Amino acid sequence: MGGQRTCLYIDAWDKHTFNIEVYQNTTHHCGASITIASEKGGLLEHVNIYNNIVYQNKSNGLEIGNWGEPGIFVHPIENVHFINNTAYNNGTDGWGGGFFNENPDVSGIVVRNNIFSQNHTSQIINESTASLTVDHNLIDGTQDDENAINDVNFVLGNPLFIRASEANFHLQANSPAIDNGSAVDAPTNDFDGIPRPQDGDEDASAIHDIGAFEKLTYSEIGYLPIVQSD
Questions:
Q1: In a domain, 196, yes or no
Q2: Which residues form the domain of 178?
Q3: In a domain? residue 225
């Protein structure tokens, strides 16, 4: 999915809007990738955004907006979870991050188990006074924005994608994203439908990976037998 404007836009407008699932999308070369908003003051709540791949968008990968109709000064958004997404190389027009919030009227926002890699301005930005729960994300790249934040139990370093240049964001065997996520509110399957968690580092302990893809061990990958014929 691609385009010049926002690829996926969830807006409560003036109605109570709730129980929305946004998952297994690939969005790229948009203005912004996945954005939530409450333009006319309707409460937006209980939104789960997980197992999405957002890359090479002009501004932000994952975004909470604070804009709206004239005379509307409160834009309430509650209980939104951004979990196990992969955001890579967003901000291609010169500004933008992996995750961006500018809305002071939010509460219950969780940013967990995401890979934020090589996004232009910063990886995670909170431009509001709102408190966010941010933990177990992988941070790779600049954090130059004055409102950039890290998190609790974050992993710092190259996620070691198979081949990001070809939009293959599966994890190499030695990726630091493997077995470093949290089980709290994590999805039960990954982008490919593989059950979570797997024992990706083969240490006899299955722990959730960070990002949209769960790493399978070699023993869990099925192969057809080689049959020789005379």
A1: yes
A2: 8-216
A3: no
For residues 104 and 66, the answer to whether their CB atoms sit within 8 Å is yes
18-46 per-position pLDDT tens digit: 999 999 999 999 999 999 999 999 999 99
* The amino acid at 156: L
- Residue 128 CA to residue 184 CA, distance in Å, equals 25
Task: Convert 158-183 into a string of H (helix), E (strand) and C (coil).
Answer: CCCEEEHHHCEEEECCCCCCCCCCCC
- Alpha carbon distance 58, 89 (integer Å): 9
Residue 113: HSE in the Cβ half-sphere, 13 Å Cα cutoff: 30
pLDDT in tens, 159-194: 999 999 999 999 999 999 999 999 999 999 999 999
The separation between CA 89 and the C-alpha centre of its own chain, rounded to angstroms, equals: 12
* Residue 222 placed within a domain: no
Give the global pTM.
0.92
Residue 230 is assigned to a structural domain of this protein? no
* Total number of domains in the chain: 1
